[in-house]
Amino acid sequence: MKKNIAIIMGGYSSEYGISIKSGNVVYKYLDSNKYNAFRIVISKEKWVYLCDSGEEVPVDKADFSIEIDGDKILFDCVFNAIHGTPGEDGLMQAYFQLLGLPQTSCNYYEAALTFNKRDLLSTLKPYNVPCAISYYLNKGQDIDFDAIVEKVGLPCFVKANRAGSSYGVSKVYKKEELSNAIDTAFKEDDQVIIESFLEGTEVSVGVITYKGEVTVLPITEIISENDFFDFEAKYQGKSQEITPARLNGEQEENVRKLAEFIYRTLGLKGYSRSEFIFIGNVPHLLEINTTPGLTEESLLPQQAKTAGISLSELFDSAIEGALC
Description:
Blueprint: E1 3-10, H1 16-29, E2 35-42, E3 47-50, E4 56-58, E5 66-68, E6 71-73, E7 77-80, H2 91-99, H3 108-115, H4 117-124, E8 134-138, H5 145-152, E9 156-160, E10 170-172, H6 178-186, E11 191-196, E12 202-210, E13 213-216, E14 220-224, H7 231-235, E15 239-242, H8 249-265, E16 271-279, E17 282-289, H9 299-306, H10 311-323
Parallel strand pairs: 1-2, 1-7
Antiparallel strand pairs: 2-3, 3-4, 5-6, 8-11, 9-10, 9-11, 12-13, 12-14, 12-16, 14-15, 16-17
Helix pairs in contact: 2-3
């Protein structure tokens, strides 16, 4: 008997549109011989099942069910394709855990931790995971621009602490530019992280649980045409993404071991994609995404394809892992 799978997409953040694209790709490639797929669009205004006709059916939040032609439909599993809040920060994961409903991404605590860049880096610091020097700000706090420059240097990156897809990120070359960059970051979150600039090869490493085994996917090298790997570079073709990355043997071994170590140490499951910059042969962690993009052009599907894993196989494995 086929399983009912809810594919949740959308969300409450600036990544809403990207999430819709990811969710539609999952819907397209999910094995229809094994699963009945339902697109569930989550927004601040409403939670609805989106029919192929375009009709919207409200979701009953009490048990995450829908009603079609008088029949109540419950789901066997949720495929999480929401980037940003509430799908990547633990809120949906906690909700589904309360309902006893399996879902494909990591658990709520691990999601909240990895979504919070400064808490993530603080957690990994005792394990000697290399990363950039950082400075933290909360909204409403007095800002000491001299202290920021003294600690992280110039140029530096100003980032919204809890945001993705490079929303709220600026590269700053002069102290006078910090104020505007911080204001931009605060539009996305009330916490800001300012990091030293690391100059070196940037790579993205997918680590997933595939057919029950932790698997490190082929590494992607990122070469942005812009000043850094910003929204245009990620989603509008302003970058080269080379898979497998052009790394020497030591670099590849170091980053594969570190990415897997982080995945296992944090107790992640499902998909993850970690970003690193090399200083010499040493990879420095930038961030971890636990609901990465899943369009045909996204990095994780590119890496899976290079590994010989089709999108149908990739998505099927996530559901099977959640159900076991």
